[in-house]
Amino acid sequence: MKRFCFKKCGLFAAVVCVITLSFSFSSCASASTSFTVSQPSKIPQDFFGISPDRSPLEKEDFELLDDFSAVWIRTTIRWAGVERQEGVWDFDRWDIYVDKAEAAGKKVIIILGFDNPWLYSDNKEKRDLAERELPYYLKYVEQVVTRYKTRVVYEIWNEPNWVFWKGSDKNFFALSAAAAKKIRELEPDALILAGSTSRVDAKFTRGMFKSGAMENTDGFSVHPYGTSPVDTMRQINKLKKILNEFKYDKPIWVTEVGYSTGPVSFCHIRQYPEYIVKTLSSLSTQANGIRNVIWYELMDNYNPGEVVNRLDPENYFGLIHPNKTFKNGAEAFMLTAGYLAGAEYSPNLLKREKVSKNITSYFFVREDGESVLILWNNGMGKKKVRLSVANAQDISNHNIINREITILKGEPLLEIGKEPVFITWKGGENPRLLKK
User: Fold this and answer.
1) In the Cβ-directed half-sphere of 300, how many Cα atoms lie within 13 Å?
2) Rounded Cα–Cα distance for residues 262 and 308 (Å)
């Protein structure tokens, strides 16, 4: 529901964004910054999710989400859609949605938004719910929560620091605080998320805490869209520092993250697998502070060869096309999420011997004992390192484009460039990375 700075923007706005962010993009693309975390963490089995809003969510779609190891899904129960006339409620569509998701083993995040046209004489949404309109919104919140109780997670609004809210920050803080309080009163065991910011807006985020809007919440939700995985992780680290300022010990929920692969985008389709592996694995290393990661999104708005609006990046965030064919990057998501869900990030078990600081190395151990090592070079060119794992079996190099496997022998010499190298093996002693 975004995207980065191009959501529902025209050509002029897109060009302005490209110009203003071109320096950031070039810096991120060549940065040697590493976000390696030194502390071990357990990645929840339900860590990953995918936004499926363009999907009809039939049996085939749920099976596809299973293939992607996606447990979480997220959608909006639009206020204007369930109360088209004041006091007349219709949740039939959403009853079916929640029932189908539960039957398929999916966990649902419901966005509580947005405005309702009948509040105003001109019958147009304002996206600014002030003191007069707030009681009506809280009645909508009450209807949703009373109906679905703890069957779903509640997220208050979507990107209120962006185009989805037109009013003052003060008015939104009041709405968010009142909604969280109302949910807690109605359903004490409900999970409540607030924030839902586009990127990390420091002023807005601090305002949420100073105003008391984060009281009664169970997590801060964020959409850390970046020009690259490095920029995405910078957003996360920026948010963690702000949360620490306010001693907020609840987890971060990444309820949207992704990259558009359209013509007016920072991520070329060739880079998509690389960006996916780097982003998912980097976020996984911070599972001590991050509860989950929901990819935006499952499906593009076009099939290959169709004539679409090429200048709107919103069309190109998917992993697949509407005809269910895979985009370049879908296999990378399946590979990464499939191996990392439920694994233990174990940096303390990997020994690096004179290996360049520019090489990022993430080591994970799965519940079945299988090991996963993901490597890439943040610097220029390629570097060679040797992997030594005594008594290991089936050392395998997985191609992140198509998941083809190459079996490696002995102590393999690995050539590490900017594209991640994805290695797995069974058994063996703790691994060592050796400078060639």
Assistant:
1) 28
2) 11
Cis bond leading into 62, ω under 30°? no
> In whole angstroms, what is the distance from residue 349 CA to residue 319 CA?
33
49 and 70 co-located in one domain: yes
Whether the model clears a pTM of 0.85, i.e. scores above it, the answer is yes
- Single out the residue in 342, 357, 392 at which a domain terminates: 342
Range of the domain at 54: 11-342
Interval 358-391: pLDDT, tens: 999 999 999 999 999 999 999 999 999 999 999 9
The total of structural domains in the chain comes to 2
Q: 303 lies in a domain?
A: yes
Domain boundary among 342, 362, 387: 342
- Interhelix angle for 272-284 vs 330-340, to 10°? 20
Helix, strand, coil: what percent of the chain each, to 5? 30, 25, 45
**What's the full length of the chain, in residues?**
436
Residues 6+ apart with CB under 8 A from 105: 66, 71
Q: How do residues 255-300 score in pLDDT, each as one tens digit? A: 999 999 998 889 999 999 999 999 999 999 999 999 999 999 999 9
Q: Which amino acid is at 182?
A: K
